[in-house]
Amino acid sequence: IAFGFDPRKTFIFRNTVYMGDMYPTVVQVQRMLTLSAVKNTFGLKDSDNVGKAAFPAVQAAPCFSSAFPRVLPRLAGDPPLKCIIPCAIDQDPFFLLARNVAPRMKCCAPALLHTKFLPALKGAQFKMSSSAEGNGVITLHDTEQEVRKKVRKAFSGGGGTLEDMRAEGVNLHADVAYQLIRFFCPDDNLLAEVTSKYSRGEMNSAEVKELAADVVVRHVLSGWQARRAGVTDADVEHFSGIRSILL
């Protein structure tokens, strides 16, 4: 809500609360999926709990407008609505299964827009995730001081010394602070300047980390935290209320 979604066009739900309306579509997806397909897609074993085999149908069901009969109401004979899903690549297997069953459900196959992982502070080979805080995570509730302290410890793509950086430049793909700037800085000219100078060793990692912290605080956290403070229980109830959002 604090990111600015339009309440007239947005429905936010929890599976445990909304399952009643969605359940017929979940069952339909379950009927179309075979256990072997789910096991092969997710690498499940016979020793895994049954919830792992059942969940893909629950995850896939919201791809189809039939899961939202009161939120996206359709008249008899109306074609199903199309769905586009922005997600990271780790969610792709769920929607691959959804695309496979869509024709048999006489529904439109969902389209996916793959987003990139935000790198963890420990290194670009890790994704920033609350489920893996040990790899270094900046949360939306962090203070400016906490952000700066965390970013100063972020993995650097530079050499061991300033002379090494000036001689060899920096591996921008591995440098977490630079990646934070690339993700969140709205000023393309500033990003181009940092890219040029840092890659040639004309900026050091401490300078880039301070700039990265500035960008995260100014362009992500400060505005979001102010808006989050203004979100009320009534706002949450409205966004999660079952009503038509077709304008």
Automatic annotation (TrEMBL):
The keyword Cell cycle is annotated on this UniProt entry: no
InterPro entries on file: aa-tRNA-synth_Ic, Rossmann-like_a/b/a_fold
Pfam (any one): tRNA-synt_1b
EC number(s) recorded for this UniProt protein: 6.1.1.2
One GO-annotated biological process of the protein: tryptophanyl-tRNA aminoacylation
Membrane spanning residue stretches: none
Keyword Repeat among UniProt keywords: no
Catalysed transformations (reactions): tRNA(Trp) + L-tryptophan + ATP = L-tryptophyl-tRNA(Trp) + AMP + diphosphate + H(+)
Gene Ontology cellular-component annotations: cytoplasm
Keyword tags: Aminoacyl-tRNA synthetase, ATP-binding, Ligase, Nucleotide-binding, Protein biosynthesis
GO molecular-function terms, A-Z: ATP binding; tryptophan-tRNA ligase activity
SUPFAM superfamilies cross-referenced by the UniProt entry: Nucleotidylyl transferase
Family: Belongs to the class-I aminoacyl-tRNA synthetase family.
Name under which the protein is recorded: tryptophan--tRNA ligase
